[in-house]
Amino acid sequence: MPTFDFQCKKCSAVFEFSRPFGIETRPSCPHCKSVRTEKLLSPPAIQFKGNGFYKTDSVKKPAAKTEQKTEATVKESTVKPETKTEPKPAENGK
Q: CA dist 81 to 75, 85, 93, Å?
């Protein structure tokens, strides 16, 4: 059930009350027990999780970090020990 904010017209207390959509009954004030309450407008409680919700999420990363990684992999690949392979002799059967 959604939670709505209400304000008492008698004592001006603000409180939350959970009720299903479509029901128009107003709750009584928990402080002074007055029935004169009104529903307040409040922003929805939305939580954005994950990537792609903000302008900065789609910005490309700086190239300096990727260059350092590629230089390290190039150095590792050039240091590999040499292996000699001998060519296979051709078959002269025909």
A: 13, 13, 37
Please give the residue that has the higher pLDDT: either 61 or 17: 17
State the burial class of residue 29 (Cβ atoms within 10 Å of its Cβ: 0-12, 13-18, 19+): buried
Q: Model's pTM, two decimal places?
A: 0.46
Convert 65-93 into a string of H (helix), E (strand) and C (coil). HHHHHHHHHHHHHHCCCCCCCCCCCCCCC
| Degrees to nearest 5, angle at CA 34 with 28 and 35 | 55
Name the phi and psi angles at 41, rounded to 5: -85, 130
